[in-house]
Amino acid sequence: MVRADWTIYEEDYWAINSVIKELIENSNSTSVILIDKTGQLIASVGMEPEFDLMSFASLCAADFEANAQLAKLIGEKDFSTLYHQGVDESMYLARVAQHIILVVLFNKRTTLGLVRLRVKKAVDSLDTVLNRLFDKLEYENEDLKQFDAGFTEELNKEIDSLFKD
Amino acid sequence: MSLINYSSREINCKIVYYGPGLCGKTTNIQYVYNKVDPSTKGKLITLATEMDRTLFFDFLPLELGQVKGFKTRFHLYTVPGQVYYDASRKLILRGVDGIVFVADSQSARYDANIESLYNLHENLEEYKLKLDDVPFVLQYNKRDMDNIIPMEEMEQELNPEKFPSFPAVAVKGDGVFDTLKCVAKGVLKKLSNN
Fold first, then answer.
1. Which of A93, B47, B74, B159 has the most CB atoms around its CB within 10 Å?
2. ipTM computed for the complex
3. pLDDT tens, residue by residue, B128-164
4. By CA distance, what is A151's nearest residue in B?
5. What span, in angstroms and rounded, lies between the C-alpha atoms of B159 and B102?
């Protein structure tokens, strides 16, 4: 039996997915990526990015957290959104349901104003979906039966074969 | 914070290398990066100063083979060791699943080890965690240097609770994988025992 600190089930994933798909279409952005505050990638929709998504997720989480600390230093609770402007590509980040970061990548096909407007609506919808998910985890904390002792044993073998000189 | 994603069929876990400045945290991760099969590793991210001192963190994702249709990924992070980067250290510990404390065996770094371990306790408290709550492994690095503290003394001072510990010369790779294997298995064990 395995329990993670949190779990995303198929039904939650599809609910999240439909919101971010709609966000991409409505905002004319290139891709939307959902990351948890510890740097774990949750979902990526839209054009497949050419960069390493895992690294991108860890850096976005660090970026958001560092800015939250800066906010505290100047007397704010946090910055709920961040914007990084590039010559061709830009990023807009927004906090969702306390623990999650929504990252929108966009280019000159759209404008910051439109992205900001559409993100605001998407954040409200995602807040509902994700808070429902967190509540479910808190009260149900289901056993994940397909991960039995044999599963851990096999993973241990994988560790032995990967981590060697 | 371990995360099971049923849609992408992934399990993700976070391991943090902690310890005083220049103890060899980054060296551990670099050795792992250079040795593991290229198909299993992601990009090694290093946020360092011009003098190669870690400014924010190093990051290396490692992927195990599929088991029962699930990919398991370990995200290895280091923290900056220098005392004044405490805010960054605190951020990196968020959601940690396993910790490696890299101690510097040189006598001159005796106090720095103690200070850093104390700092780890303090920072974990911020997340309402104790060392007992998280799989924890100690590594006594730089065993090839002159003027080193005997292993027994290091154990006595840094590890009275008898957590798993390994001597190491990270720059040559000695003890690097033993340490990583131990903490990774500890993380999986905790995940399956919860």
1. B74
2. 0.84
3. 999 999 999 999 999 999 999 999 999 999 999 999 9
4. B67
5. 12
